[in-house]
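haha ok so turns out i had the wrong file open the whole time. this is the CORRECT one, sorry everyone. sequence first:
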Amino acid sequence: MATHLVKHPKSRQHALFKSLIHLPSMAITLGVLTLTFRNIFWGPQSDTTNTVLNSLQFAAQLHTSLIVMSLSAMLLHVIHRGLSSGRGIPLGFLSSGFQLNSVSYMFRKEFTRLNIGYILIFLVMFILALLSGPSSAITMIPRLQFWNVQNSWIEKGHMDFHVYIQAGESSLYPDTLTADNATPECFGLNASILSHCPAFGIRTWMQDDTLFSISDQPPYINTTIQEGWVRSLVGQPGAVNQGVSSLYLASTLSTFLGNALTAYSTLMGSFQYTSLGINAPETIQQKDEFLGRYDLSLRSAGKRISTRKPVVEVQCTGWPTDATNMSLDHSEMVYPPWTSDPIWNTDWSISAADFATLAIDNNSTLVNSSWINIEQFGSLKPSLGAYFATPETVGMGCTFGQATCNYSQYTCTIDARWMPTRAILDGSSGEQIVADANPNPIGPAFNDLNNGPAPSSYPSVLISESWSQLLNVPWIDSITNPVPSNRTILDTIGQKCLDKNTFLNATLLGRHFDDGLSHRIAINVMDTLGCLQVSLSVYLSDALARAQNNIPTYFVMKGEVFPPDRSASNIYLVQDFYAGHVLPFDGGVNLQGQFTNLTEADFNDWTRFTELVMMTTRYG
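then structure:
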């Protein structure tokens, strides 16, 4: 063997030279596969994207040709070895190196009569050549999609970013809302014009007449409110026109979720070189072409917990003027456990005598109202109840088989709960949009969500009498002249429902009223019920969406940076998350908006803090 190697040095050089034909295809394949499996981000979508994709498609075709050329060279080598050996080669196999793109070759007699070994060799090469084209295109041409950003810090050193809200899971999504969940000014006369208070949103909704003008059936709504970001509110009827009772559901994203997403995007994109002493872009979000998306999730005690939003269902019932006992009906509720015992057969009765002072205006044009104290019902009770006393309303067709009916009292049963969803900020279009991944308020009642247990695992939220006072503060007619009126928000909702869906002292099919009293005429008394249900579900879901607005939230930076004019600096900075920009770090000096009394140990206490995890992806 040694003699042979020494005797034929040129043959080894020749073999090495011939093998160079395989190097281009192998090098390109390894490079492309490395980029593919490492999920390397190519670049953002731009005006030149189509040109780049066309060029890469041409490159993929060239790569395919190189692979086929390499495979052909392998077949020719097999043929050459056979011809130079004593065994020879079948005549039908001589042209196989040039037939890798020919299906008809495999049906010719010269191929089908080949030895099984030669057939297998060719089939392997043929299949590889056949798959090389689409495989090369799939791996080489970048996919336009969202790509994970493993680390937002792009300067020297490293930096970790975290957001914490000062609440455990049980206080972030409480089973009972009390006065402890709000600041004192939210109980004041001007609470309805303070943006951080639960009652603030009612002013926007009161201007939307589509929520109050009902024509036979409550509308499906998908409306928005602008408060730093555009928040959608979705509502839909449940079962309608069921006797004198019906149902409406509404839901919207909790404001603290959208606020957190937009604030994080602002902070990560607003670093100034003076903040950390580095005169260069420090985060990937500062690049002009960054088109990012943030998926918000919550983490507590090392595990992920569901992000949730409020969903409210309201069922109202009309009662005649002389009714002495009424109830909070709930037969149309759709969320468990309302649909089964023991709640299904529970009767929550109230006495008209308890609201006698509200009914004194029944013969006027005014609507009086009150929340119903649910504590009287014991341990099994709704989230909240409402009572409205109105002028007598005369209408048609409010019950099956009854021509007319007269109502001047209405009771509404309210079920509220925190339902799981996902909050996303999508900036891939160049405009930042906060989206609710599960906007349909009735969907979770019938379909379990991927990120949480079944709806029955989320109990109703009890709204205490103290927290309900936040929802019934005085109505203010004008922001420019913010003088509280002597009417509450609940009174104002009832009044608008009455005014929009009835007519004062009109004639009903030739029937005249000569008793000297005020009467409201309704084409369909279900319209007033529908209006109360729509407006209350919208108002309460919006108010619950603001329940976490006053919880302190912190932005934490931790890491090591390398300023150009001094040695490396270890950074641990805690600041107000909603400061609007990253506050300068100056050797631990406590500037306004920064907190030096909060440590990592504090934030790791899951009974006090919950982490808001912002999974960052970018489009390209």
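The first strand starts at residue 146 and ends at 148.
again sry for the mixup
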